[in-house]
Amino acid sequence: MLKKNKTLGEFIIENQSSFQYSSGELSKLINAIRLAAKVVNHEVNKAGLVDILGEAGDTNIQGESQQKLDVLANEKFIQTLKNREIVCGIASEEEDDFITINSYDEKHQNKYVVLIDPLDGSSNIDVNVSVGTIFSIYRRVTPVGTPVELKDFLQKGSEQVAAGYIVYGTSTMLVYSTGHGVNGFTLNPALGTFYLSHPNMQFPEDGKIYSVNEGNYVHFLQGVKDYIKYCQKEEGDRPYTARYIGSLVSDFHRNMIKGGIYMYPKSSIAENGKLRLLYECNPMAYLAEQANGIASDGFKRILEIEPTELHQRVPFFCGSKNMVEKLHEFMTKNT
Ligand code: AHG
Ligand code: MN
Ligand code: MN
After folding, report:
1. Pocket perturbation via mutation, ligand 1, pick of 168, 275, 313 by most ligand atoms within 8 A of CB
2. Burial classification of residue 256, based on how many CB atoms lie within 10 Å of its CB (0-12 exposed, 13-18 middle, 19 or more buried)
3. What is the fold of 209-333?
4. CA geometry: angle at 216 spanning 272 and 211, to 5°?
5. In a mutational test of the pocket of ligand 1, which residue from 55, 120, 133 has the highest number of ligand atoms less than 8 Å from its CB?
6. What is the layout of strands, in order, in the sheet containing 209-211?
7. Which protein residue has the closest C-alpha to ligand 1 atom 16?
8. Per-residue pLDDT of the chain (335 residues; tens, 9 = 90+)
9. Packing angle between helix 8-15 and helix 25-45, nearest 10 degrees?
10. Residue 210: enclosing H or E segment and its boundaries?
11. Residue ranges per domain, the chain?
12. Taking the complete model, does pTM exceed 0.85, yes or no?
């Protein structure tokens, strides 16, 4: 028997009035993301059956090879948002530059810009392991009815009005926040409807899972190395469990439910780590803080970093409060 849960559509309508400056525009935008999520979910689910596995033969602006599904997910999200004419600009991890939508036209009064990582965890696609989509929403800072500018996208993470992710896992979930906590919705694939399955999600204050690509250990800063050794030490409730999927969305999702810390440190081979501030770290940091967790670059809050470029990378540490605070102790001891 299915529980009689609220649908995402009902939830959006009920909560519309709690948005600051509510005019229904943000609700429409979340609705468009909901639609794009279903389309991408459909593509991801049949990936093994049609010719969309493998590399697309191109590289993105960051020099990473694009998978066919990367390209497809990017197109689907951009198309859906464009067609519905509800944003004035989009920036995507897979695009060199931001995209301007109708904002040069005076009759379009759209005030939101969206930043997306259309497919997170691309290297997992071909092996049938969970991938995701991440989105981040800001109010533009330039006047409506004029073309969007770079500064509309280069805002501090603390300025986000909403953020979320979709995880295409054993079931597909859409998890998002508009600044009033984090709620998770599970897709019933038979009906094509998202239902509120995880209301008010919170990171447990403590956790026992650490998630890091330990293959890079030798390249990490001493503080990170020491913290990893701390996680592995036999003492009290340690050693902790290591879990690393290689898809930020999935690792974050598990850690938020069970309690844990995710780390993508800088290293001697990657000066600022790998994750992108605007498409990955800011939205996840916003969700983490909304869910009682912490997100930092090892020293300071992610949400306070002033972005300087669209595809900027930053070291990322995120998860249960007590775990990230412990990491900070090791980091500061070693500087
Ligand atoms: P993307 O697929 O959007 O490029 O992001 C992949 C990211 C992140 O999701 C994941 O945690 C990390 O890269 C994995 O990197 P490593 O393979 O270096 O561990
Ligand atoms: Mn990603
Ligand atoms: Mn990606």
Report:
1. 275
2. buried
3. D-Maltodextrin-Binding Protein; domain 2 (3.40.190)
4. 85
5. 120
6. 241-242, 209-211, 260-264, 316-319, 294-296
7. 246
8. 556 789 999 999 888 877 656 678 899 999 999 999 999 999 888 766 666 666 776 777 776 666 788 899 999 999 999 988 889 999 999 999 999 998 666 777 889 999 999 999 988 888 889 999 999 999 999 999 899 999 999 999 999 999 999 999 999 999 999 999 999 999 999 999 999 999 999 999 999 999 999 999 999 999 999 999 999 999 999 999 999 999 999 999 999 999 999 999 999 889 999 999 999 999 999 999 999 999 999 999 999 999 999 999 999 999 999 999 999 999 999 86
9. 160
10. strand 209-211
11. 8-200, 209-333
12. yes
Q: Give the CATH number of domain 8-200.
A: 3.30.540.10
Decide whether any atom of ligand 1 lies within 6 Å of the 117 Cβ. yes
26: nearest Cα among 157, 194, 179, 201: 179
Residue 100 CB partners (closer than 8 Å, separation 6+): 88, 89, 147, 148
**Residue 280: φ, ψ to 5°:** -120, -55
